[in-house]
UniProtKB/TrEMBL annotation:
PANTHER family with a match to the protein in the record: LATE EMBRYOGENESIS ABUNDANT (LEA) HYDROXYPROLINE-RICH GLYCOPROTEIN FAMILY, NDR1_HIN1-LIKE PROTEIN 6
The Late embryogenesis abundant protein LEA-2 subgroup domain, residue ranges: 105-207
Annotated protein name in UniProt: Harpin-induced protein 1 domain containing protein
A Pfam short name: LEA_2
Keyword RNA-binding: no
Organism of origin: Musa troglodytarum (fe'i banana)
GO biological process: defense response to other organism
Main location: membrane
Any one Gene Ontology cellular component term annotated for this protein: plasma membrane
Compartment(s): Membrane
Keyword annotations: Membrane, Transmembrane, Transmembrane helix
């Protein structure tokens, strides 16, 4: 039998391979790496916690110290009173300028058994009628010991100008015998607890009194007298 030869179609080896798509290829998109973890926030939180804890501990320690000192020394506020007022000069000239000289007798009481008070320099005393300062002075420098009562004579002097309305009001009160005065005092002090001296503070005292007259020729009587005390750090 004669052999049959199959003829295969010719293939061009230089021809390009067929492509499934004629669209241009797109570059591969890669996801960006995750951001690094922030440690700054955790550090700030840790610092804040330590700060709050330190403040709380300090407050507790200070409170404990204050409590121990309070139980050990049993502190009491000093007491002040105006006992007598003498006026050696109170004159008004044609320009309505008032010249006043007051002699004030004040009693200071330290009721504490273990606390002393050093009255320092730099004090300021003043006598007021309504909102006008009439005269000024100073508080003496001295040490007031435990359970001590001291009577002081304070001199205040000065000049001021009163308005016509205020002077007329003062004259009317002079006739009725009820003249309100206010004495103010700012006194630097050092408190001594046993043998320990505390930092300097300021005693602020305000005394409201009512007198019958401001005439230097008449006897002056105190109709009422009350003093308030507060501490300024």
């Amino acid at each position: 039998m004669a052999e049959r030869h199959r003829i295969h179609p010719a293939v061009d080896v230089e021809a390009p391979l067929p492509s499934s798509s004629h669209a241009p290829s797109k570059p591969l998109q890669t996801q960006p790496p995750p951001p690094p973890k922030k440690k700054r926030r955790s550090c700030c939180c840790r610092c804040l916690c330590w700060t709050v804890l330190t403040v709380v501990i300090l407050v507790v320690i200070i409170g404990a110290i204050v409590g121990i000192l309070f139980l050990a020394f049993d502190p009491k506020l000093p007491k002040y009173s105006v006992d007598r007022l003498a006026i050696s000069n109170f004159t008004v000239d044609d320009n309505m300028t008032v010249s006043a000289t007051f002699n004030l007798t004040v009693t200071t009481k330290n009721p504490n058994k273990k606390i002393g008070i050093y009255y320092r320099g730099g004090s300021h005393l003043s006598a007021w009628y309504t909102n006008t300062s009439l005269c000024t002075g100073t508080f003496p420098v001295f040490y007031q010991g435990h359970k001590n009562t001291t009577v002081l004579s304070l001199l205040l002097s000065g000049e001021t100008q009163l308005g016509s309305g205020l002077l007329q009001e003062l004259q009317q009160q002079q006739q009725t015998g009820t003249i309100p005065l206010v004495f103010r005092g700012n006194v630097p002090v050092t408190v001594k607890l046993g043998s320990l001296k505390l930092p300097k503070v300021t005693f602020k005292v305000k005394c409201d009194i009512i007198v019958n007259t401001l005439s230097s020729s008449n006897t002056i009587s105190l109709k009422s007298s009350s003093c308030k005390f507060r501490l300024k750090l």
